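Figure 3 (text version): structure tokens given as input.
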């Protein structure tokens, strides 16, 4: 399963946060922050899969008002990085229309 390494990483990251700080309350707060980020990630994952063509073409930036994703409680979406085009825009338009095959 593709999410398995992501889940393992999140678990290791949270365990590290719990074990690294001798202040138990601070460690728990940090672990809760990590879990909030993980919940937001998995919440957005369904949206990303449903809108995969928009992500491929870069149109998701319009959907989210120039931000990387949706805002979550206490976790505002960061602004999107400057766009860079690997394929020229005319080629992308051709792909969307089912046309252009080389470019």
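Below: residues designed for each position.
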């Amino acid at each position: 399963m593709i999410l398995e390494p992501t889940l393992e990483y999140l678990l290791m990251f949270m365990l590290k946060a719990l074990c690294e700080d001798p202040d138990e309350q601070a460690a728990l707060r940090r672990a809760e922050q990590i879990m909030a980020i993980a919940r937001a990630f998995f919440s957005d994952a369904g949206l990303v899969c449903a809108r995969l063509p928009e992500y491929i073409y870069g149109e998701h930036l319009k959907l989210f008002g120039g931000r990387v994703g949706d805002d979550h409680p206490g976790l505002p979406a960061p602004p999107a990085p400057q766009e860079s085009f690997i394929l020229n825009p005319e080629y992308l338009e051709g792909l969307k229309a089912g046309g252009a095959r080389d470019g």
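Residues 1-50 form one domain.
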